[in-house]
Amino acid sequence: MTMQSTEGEIRPAAVAGAFYPGDAAALRAAVAAAFTDPLGPGGVPAPGAGPRRLLGIVAPHAGYVYSAASAAWAFAEAVRDGRPQAVVILGVNHHGVGAPLALSPAVGWQTPLGIAPVAVELAARLQTLLPDAVPDARAHAREHSLEVQVPFVQVLFGDVPILPLALGRPGIAATVRLGQALARLAAETELLIVASSDLSHYISAEEAARRDGLALACIAALDPQGLLAAVQAEGITMCGVLPVTALLVAATALGATAGRVLHYHTSGDVTDDRREVVGYGAAAVYRSEAPLATDQDDAA
Q1: What confidence tens digit (pLDDT) does each residue in 67-82 have?
Q2: Residue 12 resides in a domain
Q3: pTM value?
């Protein structure tokens, strides 16, 4: 396979003005509004000073009007946990173009808020640990699942570098190897791993809540095999099941025992049309220590 490279270049925003506002001021306001939305966590918590105990979060990737409030729950937990050295974003390759495990060869990602630097050295280290991961700009060129997470990182963590990785159809074995490699990276560097995923698509809100509850229970239990089995057995159209699986594998490899569901809603809670909805969930996955105690434990 011949890989297209834009090494040294900036990856331009592909979905600004569509999935999120294309104007810097409006985008910053939209991120802030996600936290104060009636479906959101109520505000941005004070930044934590550490020690960091959070390994990663699960956050949705639909248009901000539908899913940003759910993502805000996950990112609020990340802010509360403290500033990471880098943010690994595991997204879905919805278009099926490019390498199955595709790193971004760009040195920065453009959004209306500026350029988010890519953790180039961390990407090189990941390639050493995981030869399956290769640079391929094609997998990232039009993909939204990673891009919509970047403004949250920029607003909340400033110039913390990102490591975007698009998962197409790498297979379960390669996904497990990715999780194991991420565990190695997390043992060496203070990482926040963002597993980007929506949940059920275009079924009734009642059925979505039932199916999505099964998937979220597996995430809370740090059970990657159970998650894969539930998705297959129940027909859960969870587009980011492999990114989430990789996060859970990394957590268990690090000896983690704790995960937590933070929030769940569907597009029907936004549109009031509950006949065919998309589900959005937020979850946090911790290292081997217990999850952070917050005053919102009962709110989710």
Answers
A1: 999 999 999 999 999 9
A2: no
A3: 0.93
